[in-house]
Write a structure and sequence with these properties.
Blueprint: E1 2-6, E2 9-16, H1 18-26, E3 35-37, E4 47-49, E5 52-54, H2 63-69, H3 74-89, H4 95-113, H5 128-140
Antiparallel strand pairs: 1-2, 1-3, 4-5
Helix pairs in contact: 3-5, 4-5
Amino acid sequence: MANYYNKNNLSDLRDLPQSLIDTWVDVNNPKMQEWILAPAKPSPNAVWENGQWVIPSPPVYTAEKWLSKQGYGATQLVTLLDLYAALSIANKTSAKLNAVKAWTNRILGEYVQNNEPKENWEVAPFTFNETVIEAYQELGN
């Protein structure tokens, strides 16, 4: 299989089997003149647009969207604050909760410095589920 595009419709990119191309060449099928071998895809995230590969800009996120994408939407953050307070009252701690709190503080600090959306926010150290489970276990001990 190889990528060919239609010279009359540059957005029409198809994976054509080599056997079909060989048959077209063997019988001198006029369709062979309509299809042009596309250049190799330059990267996995490249997309075909109007007869050429285009590498789209990486997505950008606001701090709030990034936190949510990482599994820490508003409800999850409130839950973690409640757990943090409960642990503090019980004079206990959770390593994962502390790491997530430090991470959210770094995200907030970056947002305060520059509130423009960006692509390279730091990834959460733990999932919400991992964090909640450990925090509840610590509360129970």
